[in-house]
Specification:
The protein is an alpha+beta fold. It has three helices and nine strands, in the order ββαβαβββββαβ. The longest helix has 14 residues.
Length: 156
């Protein structure tokens, strides 16, 4: 089971998510305004979200994939525990040399929030759907095909 959060509205998916269209459909509707974010977390095997303890819900919030922006230009991030056990947020990007500071602005939530990323970290809905499907089926992003840049929530 998975917990999907669309711009603050939660939905528990009790069936298997294993088709690309299951992510492509909501991501293609991103308008950068009201429909501009999607977060997917895995619910522990054999459990229901409503029955999870606060500690289990906090643990879920430390392992997810999310996207924000519009269908044409969005960022994709994953959060996971590092080797030291600390939850870290990473922005997904295509392998590329980066020079300088990020300079592509991705607005979301009616322009109330903006994420600034490198140009190689901008995805369209189609490729983001592939990343979401990979994450829910394999539990990770293929780091031979993509690079992850740690994102410090305190400075972003």
């Amino acid at each position: 089971m998975f917990l999907l959060t669309f711009g603050g509205k939660r939905q528990v998916i009790e069936h298997r998510i294993d088709q690309r269209w299951q992510f492509a459909q909501p991501l293609e509707r991103f308008d950068g305004l009201e429909r501009s974010s999607l977060t997917v977390s895995k619910i522990p095997e054999g459990r229901y979200y409503e029955d999870l303890s606060d500690i289990e819900k906090i643990s879920m919030s430390e392992n997810y994939i999310q996207a924000a922006g519009s269908a044409e230009a969005m960022s994709v991030e994953v959060r996971r525990r590092g080797e030291d056990g600390t939850a870290r947020l990473y922005i997904v990007g295509h392998p590329s040399f980066r020079n300088g500071e990020p300079d592509v602005r991705i607005p979301f939530h009616n322009g109330k929030h903006t994420l600034t990323v490198y140009s190689n970290e901008v995805f369209d809905a189609a490729e983001a759907a592939d990343l979401f499907l990979s994450w829910v089926t394999d539990g990770r992003i293929d780091e031979t095909a993509y690079q992850l840049r740690e994102f410090d929530l305190g400075t972003g």
